[in-house]
Write a structure and sequence with these properties.
It is found in: Cell membrane. The protein is mostly helical and 301 residues long. The chain has one domain: MetI-like fold (Orthogonal Bundle), CATH 1.10.3720.10. The protein is 70% helix and 0% strand. The protein is built from 13 helices and no strands. Helix 2 packs across helix 13, helix 3 packs across helix 13 and helix 6 packs across helix 8. The radius of gyration is 23 Å and the shape is elongated. The two termini are 13 Å apart.
């Protein structure tokens, strides 16, 4: 029996069948499954950091400056990945840093989705002068390089992780507004919307209950891809010194603090860089799987 037949013959409620079909197409992408597992591990590390991390991320061991990893000559079993220039355990800071990077990404996507979907849904359904006003504003934001705009906004708001989150969210809003508007314009012409309107559904109900759920699949994929990019942007602002401030163990900030030791203590730069690289790669792989599972054009029989 073919795999497609097996998935189509699954019994149970429609929701159960939908979940089974989603997992079937998602799991066909092995890279997406690996990415999901890795992201799950990072999330667990972030949640249970106080239980997993050997030490506090701010604790300093003044007799152990720039200790190499345990497998290097001069390494210590007390510090598996070594210590930084002020004697802080790198492994502990990486584990706690997952909290800041993931939390920042989640808040950025939440702000972006809320504002982007709200503006795009209204502009695509109402049309007219409001649509023109919103889209021209989005075009103005897109005309400025995103990192430059984020730097300007952080300068206005003041350095800090919260300012970086708000600034990055502003630069992401146009992408969600344009995607939502395009989806709404396409869905508004469907027969089910006309039927709902004839049945007496109000404007708000048509927008939120009838149209929006059918626009969510590409928005979820876009949100996943933007989540990985947001982690990079938060790290970039932290590296430039306008994001997370010391002694916050944010991965980009850790890179900034370690750059002067890159030639004589490779571990203080390598491990935060690997944390960013692997996490972003895993989220991108997971996003590819979501695209395969949610986009009907990508599904294979």
């Amino acid at each position: 029996m073919s795999t497609a037949t097996t998935t189509s013959d699954i019994g149970g409620s429609p929701r159960t069948r939908a979940i089974a079909e989603f997992w079937h197409y998602f799991s066909e992408n092995k890279g997406a499954v690996v990415g999901l597992c890795f992201v799950g591990i990072v999330i667990c590390c972030a949640i249970f950091a106080p239980l997993i991390a050997p030490y506090s991320p701010e604790e300093q061991f003044r007799d152990y400056f720039l200790v190499p990893p345990v497998w290097e000559d001069g390494g210590s079993s007390m510090f598996l990945l070594g210590t930084d220039a002020v004697g802080r355990d790198i492994l502990s800071r990486l584990i706690y840093g997952a909290r800041y990077s993931l939390a920042a990404g989640c808040v950025i996507i939440a702000l972006t989705l809320t504002s982007g979907i709200g503006l795009g849904l209204t502009a695509g359904y109402v049309r007219g002068w409001f649509e023109v006003l919103v889209m021209r504003l989005m075009d103005i934001i897109l005309s400025v390089p995103s990192l430059l705009l984020a730097l300007v906004l952080v300068t206005v708001l003041g350095p800090g992780l919260f300012s970086a989150i708000v600034a990055i969210a502003v630069t992401y809003v146009p992408h969600f507004v344009r995607l939502t508007r395009a989806q709404v314009i396409s869905e508004a012409q469907r027969d089910y919307v006309t039927a709902s309107r004839v049945a007496g559904a109000g404007t708000l109900r048509l927008m939120v209950i009838a149209i929006l759920p059918n626009c969510m699949a590409p928005l979820i994929v876009q949100a996943t891809m933007s989540f990985s990019t947001s982690i990079l942007d938060v790290a970039a602002l932290g590296f430039l010194g306008v994001g997370a401030q010391p002694p916050t163990p944010e991965w980009g900030r850790m890179l900034a603090e370690a750059r002067e030791f890159i030639t004589r203590a490779w571990w203080v730069v390598t491990f935060p860089g690997l944390a960013i690289l692997l996490t972003v790669l895993a989220i991108n792989l997971m996003g590819d799987g979501l695209r395969d599972a949610l986009d009907p054009k990508m599904k294979r029989s």
